[in-house]
Amino acid sequence: MTNWEIAQVFEEIADLLEIMGENPYKVRAYRKAARVLENLYLDVQDLIEENRLEEIPGIGEALAAKIEELVKSGRLRYHEELKKKVPPGLREMLQIPGVGAKTVQIIYKHLNISSIDELEEAARKRQLQELPGIGKKTEEAILHGISSLRQSAKRWNLNFANAIAKEIVSYMNDGEKVNKIEIAGSYRRGKETVGDLDIVVSSSDPSAVVEKFVAAPWVKEVVAKGETKATVITRWEIRVDLLVAESQSFPSALLHFTGSAAHNIHLRRLARERGWKISEHGILQGESAFYPASEEEFYQALGMSYIPPELREDWGEIEAAQIGKIPELVKDEDLRGDLHVHTTWSDGANTLEEVVEAARARGYQYLAITDHSKSLGVSNGLTEERLLQQKEEIERLNTQIEDFTLLAGTEVDILTNKELDFDDRILAELDLVIASIHSGFKQDRDTLTERIIAAIDNEHVDIIGHPTGRLLGRREPYPLDVSRVLEAAAQTKTALEINASPDRLDLKDVYIREGKELGVIFAINTDAHNVHALDDIHYGVKMARRGWLEKKDVLNALSLEELKKWLKKRS
């Protein structure tokens, strides 16, 4: 059993416990463990053999025993017992955007509803608005969420897709029949979620590759199978399409199956204007075939510069490439640090020292510690006194560290009355301030917009965290006039966060592009609550690239000295 699969079991346990109204600290422990396991590079099976499970942050004796039971038997009795206590339909309700475990618990307790169909019927009969803590607006939101759920196919967050892709590539990449293997499609383009996975393989023996693919241990159902193509449904329920190409056609096949469809249609139109035909096999120029040796050569043949996969949406990238105006997109290695990280001082899993060690191992110059503020009690938010104590501890650590700097900061709540959770006197003492909304999501569009703009206008606020508040697949963005927020940020030179957590990826690519054109500066941050989540930065970079950002557009691509100058100028 893989790390990712164990993480999914723990995530389901957390959902079930929350629906049952169990202790929130117990729920949080399973969620933290799930997140750590999703991002863990070390193989859990190896850690079991070496008796090192409890070295994983957030994994104590009890959780370690459960992991060992899962790995050795493929099942967990505790998990199965919980599933017997909770009707399966209740967990399905959690897929409805905006519906959390507490809402499900209330609905089940009062109306004995245990399926989405029953929930929809009750909402249409206006039975939900009479329940405690729900009301008319929530009832309407639930109906809207059910409609959205039914209209959209199951989509997977990038971290889930990435874990599955690695598993598949590891299995297929045997070095014998497979010469090259790449994941294409929306995954390669860095879309915020993916509906399936597309795999392109180069091989001189396509039939052998196809046979190996359809016989893989993770295949649940073979949907289609041909000489060079196959489609399967995996045991993770995600569909995977395979294309096997000859070596000479591999670049063309990779470009074709990366997409997007709109991008490919535009390319085909340009080819037709030259009297050519293009496909996954190559370029047909009259009677002769041309096989580009790379994607770069493919684009060059069509009279344009190379277009990175993240830009291939037919949003103007082809026109830009024709005149050599494709931006040099920001890369993972351009980032010098992370400006939004939590520790055990609030709801993080790691100490300041552990976070420093992890950041230095990633080659960072700096890291900002931004634990929650006092109003977020459920996350052990810091009081003014504790915040200043933490600042002193950070200053002490900085005297002991060479070639690395911790910045003392906070993620301060933007309260429902537009005030910040700490007063300006406290904020002025910090190196960096992130302001975020964590409550009052049901306020109207103008009120929410004014809350964020009020924070932007505060001279001590450097960054607005996860600006639209979305949780992918679980909570829609709150109503917000994003254009007004972008304009205010551009005017005041306040940075907007691209939250790299694969559950958020907030801001969205279209807003990033709009902000870039206004001159907004962005900070790509992980919002990490454990050291392994620092690696999520890659997903944020993907979103930044989809928004056409360059290194100069990103705050934490600055050196430490440049960042300090920027912060000083704001204060």
Summary tags:
single chain, 571 residues, alpha/beta, DNA polymerase, domain 1, Beta Polymerase, domain 2, TIM Barrel, five-stranded mixed beta sheet, 24 helices, 17 strands, 44% helix
What does this protein look like?
This protein has 571 residues and is α/β, with parallel strands linked by helices. It has 3 domains: 3-151, Orthogonal Bundle (DNA polymerase, domain 1); 157-322, Beta Polymerase, domain 2 (2-Layer Sandwich); 334-570, TIM Barrel, CATH 3.20.20. The protein is built from 24 helices and 17 strands. The strands form 4 sheets. The protein has a 7-stranded parallel beta sheet. Strand 14, helix 20 and strand 15 (463-464) form a beta-alpha-beta unit. The longest helix has 17 residues, at 3-19. The protein is globular, with a radius of gyration of 25 Å.
Rg (C-alpha, Å):
25 Å
Count of DSSP-assigned helices = 24
Low-confidence stretches: none
Q: Calculate the mean pLDDT score and round it.
A: 91
Sheet/helix structural class? alpha/beta
The CATH class designation of the largest domain is Alpha Beta
Measured by DSSP, the beta-strand proportion falls in 5-15%
> How many E-type strands?
17
Our count of domains comes out at: 3
Cα-to-Cα separation, first versus last residue: 51 Å
What is the strand arrangement across the widest sheet? 11-12-13-14-15-16-17
